[in-house]
Write a structure and sequence with these properties.
- The protein is of the alpha+beta class and about 290 residues long.
- It is about 50% helix and about 20% strand.
- It has 11 helices and 6 strands.
- A hairpin with a 5-residue loop joins strand 2 and strand 3.
- Helix 5 crosses helix 6.
- The longest helix has 25 residues.
- It is flat, with a radius of gyration of 25 Å.
């Protein structure tokens, strides 16, 4: 199969965006998550999502087709199949709120599609997602606390004024507030040197560990990886994973807990298509800075 053309890429994007809806056809747990995301009664998860199997088959066939065989007519045809997926979602939400005269179906649909789009960008393009959020955060807060000049020239004072009592890191709420700003921006900066980052956590609504989930939700993880060649032209690879967590006074802080883990490998060519790889994992390191734990 040749590379996909623009029309196929468009369909692929929409198909991936609607993946949770498609999964909900045979999975009541996915339907339950859709309802919970919209603050609807999860007991309605037994309501089916009815997407014609032929529509799904047509979409898959279109994605796998040779790009040379794709034209505007087949594109419009598959858009009709994608519309059936949307209609199935609309029917599912309509059935779930049946009997509620105040339910706004269009608003619920728009809200859920917005969630799908944000999650798609967050998962598939995290650097773009967090950069947008960071720019939004800087713009909002700089206007309120003295402008961008103060943000860049008096950063410490700016942040202290911005976070007020939270700056003393006394409570779990303070840690969350500071992490959502400072650690988040550290992660944004790391993306500019091509780090992979993860910030935040989506807990299971039925989780039995809310404290651990809360800490995970404000923890920043960054992965730095790279490769080069040594003087003998052998390939050297390495990666470092660093996790940052603020520790409030309520948790025997205040301070910052760092977890650092590293690994490396040396690949030595021995002959045609044969090489020797030597890998080394560094021991985990924990670094704490702040008041005694």
């Amino acid at each position: 199969m040749s590379a996909r053309n623009f029309l196929q890429d468009t369909v692929n994007f929409i198909r991936n965006l609607l993946e949770p809806v498609i999964q909900g056809v045979g999975d009541p747990e996915v339907r339950r998550e859709i309802l919970l995301a919209l603050n609807l009664n999860p007991a309605q998860a037994g309501t089916p999502i009815n997407i014609p199997s032929q529509a799904l088959s047509n979409i898959d066939d279109y994605q796998q087709a040779n790009a040379d065989d794709i034209d505007i007519e087949t594109f419009l045809s598959v858009l009709n199949d994608l519309t059936q997926v949307y209609n199935a979602l609309e029917n599912f939400i309509t059935a779930a709120v049946a009997g509620d005269p105040e339910a706004a179906i269009e608003e619920l649909l728009t809200a859920y599609l917005d969630m799908l789009l944000l999650n798609y960008v967050r998962v598939r393009h995290p650097g773009f997602y967090i950069t947008l959020d960071a720019l939004k955060l800087i713009q909002q807060q700089s206007v309120r606390y003295g402008g961008l000049v103060k943000f860049f020239t008096q950063t410490g004072q700016f942040l202290k004024e911005l976070y007020g009592d939270s700056w003393d890191l006394q409570t779990e709420a303070d840690a969350k507030n500071l992490s959502d700003g400072i650690l988040f921006l550290v992660g944004v900066a790391a993306t500019f040197i091509k780090a992979e980052i993860a910030y935040g956590f989506d807990p299971d609504p039925a989780s039995t560990s809310p404290l651990a989930d809360g800490v995970s939700d404000r923890t920043l993880t960054m992965k730095f990886a790279g490769k080069t060649k040594d003087a003998s032209d052998n390939i050297v690879k390495g990666e470092v994973v660093s996790t940052w967590t603020l520790v409030p006074k309520d948790h025997r802080g205040p301070g910052l807990l760092l977890h650092i883990d590293g690994a490396g490998s040396l690949e030595i060519p021995l002959g045609n298509n044969v090489s020797l790889t030597i890998s080394v994992d560094a021991p985990d390191a924990f670094i704490y800075t702040g008041d005694d734990l």
